[in-house]
Automatic annotation (TrEMBL):
Record keywords, A-Z: Signal
Signal peptide annotation: 1-28
Species for this entry: Kribbella sindirgiensis
InterPro entries according to UniProt: Papain-like_cys_pep_sf, Peptidase_C39-like
Domain (Peptidase C39-like) ranges: 59-196
Stated name of the protein: Lysis protein
Species lineage: Bacteria, Bacillati, Actinomycetota, Actinomycetes, Propionibacteriales
C-alpha cells in the first residue's frame, strides 16, 4: 500500500479510559516498507485527514510493560487501545513474537497492528540514516499528523544513547518501543505514551526534533 492510499475519511475510534498499572521493570510475515525517497517521488498526500490542528491527542488504555523486554507488546497494546479493546501484553508478545531479547523489528509490530484492526493502514517506515535525512523528517511529521488526525497512534522503535534521552532514562543506551499519541503543531512537539516507567509520568511531551533523532537507525509503524 502506498502512502497515497491513506486518502480516506477520518475514523472515529473507541475512546477508552486511560488506566495505568504499576511498572514491573525497567519475525514473521513481512509487511510493505516505504522509504522516504519513494514517498518524495510519489503524488502529494491529499489534504483530507492531513491538515494540522493546533493540538490533537488520542484517548488510550495505558499499561506499563509487564517485563523488562515487553516494551514492544506494551507499545503495540497502547496503540491498539485507541481503536479497540486491546489484547493482553502476553498475547501480543506471542504474536509479535517477542523473546527475552525483545522485539527484533518494527515490521513485526506493523503486521500485528493491521491484523488486529483488520486494516492495511499501518506501514513500516525505515529510518536507517542517523541523523535522518530531511525527506525522512518530513515524512515522519506528515505521518504523525495524518495518523493522529485519523485516530491511529504511531509505534516507534527507538535507540536512545545517554546523550539523547527522554525524561528519566538511565545513563546508558536504551533500545525501546514507545507510542506517539498526540501532537502540538504550535511548537512541533509530540505526546509520548512510554511503557518503560523511566519517566515520572506515563505520558510526556518531546520535541519533534528529538523524536526524529531517536528513531534512527530503526523505524516506526504509521
Amino acid at each position: 500500500m502506498t502512502l497515497t492510499t491513506k486518502f480516506k475519511a477520518a475514523v472515529s475510534g473507541l475512546a477508552l479510559i486511560a488506566a495505568a498499572v504499576l511498572p514491573v521493570g525497567a519475525a514473521a510475515a513481512v509487511p510493505q516498507t516505504v522509504s522516504a525517497e519513494a514517498v518524495a517521488a510519489a503524488k502529494p498526500v491529499p489534504t483530507l485527514g492531513y491538515s494540522t490542528q493546533t493540538v490533537k491527542t488520542l484517548n488510550i488504555d495505558f499499561q506499563y510493560q509487564q517485563t523488562g523486554y515487553w516494551c514492544g507488546p506494551a507499545a503495540t497494546r497502547i496503540a491498539l487501545s485507541a481503536r479497540i479493546s486491546p489484547p493482553s501484553q502476553q498475547q501480543l508478545a506471542n504474536e509479535l513474537p517477542t523473546t527475552t531479547n525483545g522485539t527484533d523489528w518494527i515490521g513485526q509490530v506493523t503486521r500485528v497492528l493491521n491484523n488486529h484492526l483488520g486494516t492495511g493502514w499501518y506501514e513500516t517506515k525505515e529510518m536507517p540514516n542517523d541523523p535522518p535525512t530531511q525527506a525522512q523528517r518530513d515524512l515522519l511529521w506528515r505521518d504523525v499528523v495524518l495518523d493522529i488526525n485519523n485516530n491511529y497512534p504511531i509505534v516507534a522503535n527507538i535507540v536512545a544513547p545517554a546523550s539523547n534521552h527522554p525524561p528519566g532514562y538511565p545513563n546508558y543506551t536504551i533500545y525501546h518501543y514507545f507510542t506517539v499519541i498526540g501532537y502540538d503543531d504550535s511548537d512541533q512537539t509530540v505526546l509520548i505514551a512510554d511503557p518503560a516507567g523511566f519517566a515520572p509520568t506515563a505520558t510526556y511531551w518531546l520535541t519533534f526534533n528529538q523524536l526524529a533523532t531517536l528513531i534512527p537507525p530503526k523505524g516506526y509503524s504509521a
